Write a sequence for this structure.
């Protein structure tokens, strides 16, 4: 049997420990999966409620405007005016939806960072598990 000097064995053990420690410190921190219920966000967040009210008010305004103008227009002009007003409504709807989506994304990014969440998915697509961040998003959208 060959006898290996003790200092070679101790050096090998120290080298393995050093490599393992370095690898451990370089690993990515474990994150989790978050889930969000967008229906609940829209139903409960004050910001989404304000946007919905603004959209409903605009729709009522456009309906009233069309009713006032309707008597002075022939059928073809009325249909054209109706399309114009609907385009105005849809433009506002897209604008408000874009703003809400941006606000939700910003809130989700902050919450995910705070809670060490790497992925956020729609609650409807998750069968089991995940950290529900819906309430946090609702609170953030004031």
């Amino acid at each position: 049997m060959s006898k290996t000097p003790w200092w070679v064995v101790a050096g090998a053990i120290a080298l393995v420990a050093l490599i393992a420690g370095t690898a451990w410190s370089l690993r990515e921190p474990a994150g989790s999966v978050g889930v969000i219920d967008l229906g609940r966000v829209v139903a409960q967040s004050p910001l989404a409620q304000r946007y919905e009210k603004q959209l409903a008010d605009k729709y009522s305004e456009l309906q009233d405007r069309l009713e006032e103008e309707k008597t002075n227009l022939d059928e073809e002009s009325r249909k054209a005016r109706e399309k114009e007003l609907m385009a105005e409504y849809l433009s506002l709807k897209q604008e408000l939806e874009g703003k809400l989506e941006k606000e939700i994304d910003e809130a989700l990014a902050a919450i995910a960072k705070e809670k060490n969440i790497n992925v956020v998915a729609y609650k409807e697509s998750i069968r089991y598990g995940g950290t529900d961040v819906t309430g946090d998003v609702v609170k953030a959208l004031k």
About this structure: Residues 6-140 form a domain with the Protein Binding, DinI Protein; Chain A fold (CATH 3.30.910.20).
